[in-house]
Records
---
Amino acid sequence: MSKRTILITGGAGFIGSHVVREFVLKYPDYHIVNLDALTYAGNLANLKDIAEKSNYTFVKADITDAKHILAVFQEYKPDGVIHLAAESHVDRSIADPTSFVMTNVIGTVNLLNAAKILWDNNFDGKRFHHVSTDEVYGTLGENGLFTEDTAYDPHSPYSASKASSDHFVRAYHDTYGLPVVLTNCSNNYGPNHFPEKLIPLCIHNVLNNRPLPIYGDGKFTRDWLFVIDHARAVDLVFHKGVNGSSYNVGGFNEWKNIDLVKELCRQMDQKLKKQHGESAKLITFVRDRPGHDLRYAIDATKINKELGYQPSVTFEEGLSKTIDWYLNNQEWLNDVTSGEYQSYYAAQYL
Ligand code: NAD
Ligand code: DAU
């Protein structure tokens, strides 16, 4: 008999797959149920090393389907939920906002309702962990950091949908007493990152000798965290976070996009034994993203002070591990860039 059953949504995606692996391997007496619709971003190949573990179950379900979600809750009776399923790419949200409202807002409310019905006011040992983003805070100028008290000010349809989902999670805590925790993390990078996002897109394009598209002047700034360090933070907050609280997660690691891409090119030149400066010749400045937030930067003091959290790798180390992973997993890259990716890429960049 398992000690706990934890339902993880979006576990076939980039971050979700690392969270699932962390929990399956670290907690053999937990039953981990991975619920995922397997959209373009979901890929069971991300989990092939743990797919046969006896404490792991995969369920294909769409969180916008309220009836199906309730049936899954009633079948598996999770006492914990870690919710990562989402439409996650800002550029896609600009092209198709409605699908972001459906999954990120309605889907989250469907999960909250299912937890509320299943737990039926018996909240002992129960927890709903909502995984969110720093983008809900909007944009910073040249200075300052986002704290947990920064007012929400989302600008893209993606961040507006995530902000809305955060509000619903807090509303279910305040109104119905649902035991919740939230994490708002900065930009992740690492293995299994879908190559629509800046870092894996540039790795893929260097490998294929294609232009590296930099939006606007390239001075936009993001705060990057290695994905395994995000998974460790989720583990910590899920188990030790204070009920009703939010935790910002980040590594105090800001990079301007252009500097980051130059560092990526430098490392790839070395690893591919190319002449220094060769990959950087592919850098191409392209039309800016509409509503592009200038700068994100997380103040991760609370999670550090309250829960003792610290990232485990420097950015240079994490980036090196990430590039190595892509070099060793080119079949994965080829699989995810065939099909739908080609039409997405053509519409986004040409
Ligand atoms: P991703 O796009 O790689 O994966 C999303 C997963 O959700 C996929 O497996 C997909 O199949 C699944 N999914 C999508 N719609 C679904 C639906 N309707 N029903 C069930 N499953 C569905 O995303 P990611 O980058 O791994 O992000 C995971 C979560 O973390 C998201 O909630 C995102 O907002 C948040 N987040 C991401 C980052 C980042 O840098 N990527 C940073 C902070 C927070
Ligand atoms: O901050 C957390 C967020 O980080 C997450 O909530 C999102 O799910 C995740 O996608 C990510 O959002 P960003 O928009 O910051 O990530 P992206 O990789 O798309 O872009 C990073 C920066 O690089 C951003 O300033 C836009 C720029 N960019 C992006 C792409 C895809 C380019 O210059 N060129 C590109 O082709």
Note: The first helix runs from residue 14 to 26.
---
Amino acid sequence: MMATHIGYNSGVTGEHILVVEDEPAVARGLLYGLNNEGFTTSWAETGQRALELARHENIHLILLDLRLPDISGFDVCRQLRTEGKRQPIVMLTACDEEVDKVLGLELGADDYVVKPYSLREVISRVRAMLRRAYGELAAAAPREKLSFGNVEIDLERLLVFRNSQPISLTPTEFRLLRYLVSNPDRPIGRDTLIETVWGYGSDIGDDRTIDVHIRHLREKLEDDPTTPRWLITVRGFGYKFKP
Ligand code: CA
């Protein structure tokens, strides 16, 4: 078992869930629910984007809509399995006929949920799949660390080190940093950061709040916080992590 690797019982250590769904309202509901439960989320609106994210980010589980604007959820699933990606995939399907295909064609999906589903149902499936999958994958799973320059982020223990010295970050700063570092070289808008850190529809965060947290992160992590090397401002938009 790998209980020490990922806190799958609570979700508080933020397993990374990729939501593949082209309908924004549906996606937002899922992202909001997952964030509320402590999961880290990414959203792909198309199958191609889903493949990119699944290839380049550390995704623990994929919630995959069947009907997407470019390639189908079936294709995404088949492609990932062909590439040896083993994350659990939970299909979001619209009717029984499609469910039959998911099961019958053995495309590599691990579970499915039929629309309309309740958020509670989806989250309970997600937890069950994470538990099952990461119990099985434990032996092969690498230790979860991210690093850049003289900074190391220990995702397992929720610690950050600079020059091997522990740095004290607030939970909000940690989530913000983890999200930025998990999406290198990608400009991320303030709205997205707010949703990521506080969840969709939250009225806690606003643009200025994000700026304050970024400033604190720079003060804690950058050699020269006034001329940041890692946490870069994207003018009029947001921020990006430059590896
Ligand atoms: Ca769809």
Note: The chain has two domains: 16-137, 140-241.
